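Hi everyone, sorry if this is the wrong subforum. Our group has a chain we'd like a structural model of before ordering constructs, and none of us has done structure prediction before. Sequence below.
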Amino acid sequence: MKLVYFFTFLFLSSCAITPDSQKTQLTFMDTNTFDHELSNSMAAHPQMITVSMLGKVSINKIPKRLGKWLGAVTEKKGRLDVNPSNTKSLALIIAVLSGLPSIYKWVKIKVSYANTIHYNAKIFYTPETGNIQKVIFRKKEKPIVDSKKNTVNK
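Answer:
Right subforum, don't worry. Here is the predicted structure as tokens:
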């Protein structure tokens, strides 16, 4: 009987630690598996998670699934940067992304996006084609509290 308990414990503990929770390099695919992997990766709190694009993804037509993640970052007071900062492209990107909070209001309810509160995001794209190369989710720096002055420095 003790052997049964031992194997049950071993099985359950192995289920708790999944290989995808350790991932810091992901490839974007418009699937629920991508959401699961990114959510698990963020829950492990790595400094940086790089999401590469599998095919051509235009900065002007960000897939809804990726848009939800970027929208969740901005809704949780994260910063969304775009690289390179080309003024014409940046204005267009800001116009496209400004609609994300209203389009994805339900993001607040979705549990899998909860860990975006700890991250900022940066989009890397080719200006000539407008294709996204990768998106990096970088852990936010913790504010430094000066207890003598009772102020917060970032």
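For your construct planning: The two ends are 56 Å apart (CA to CA). Strands lie at 25-28, 48-53, 80-83, 119-125, 132-139, 144-146, 151-153.
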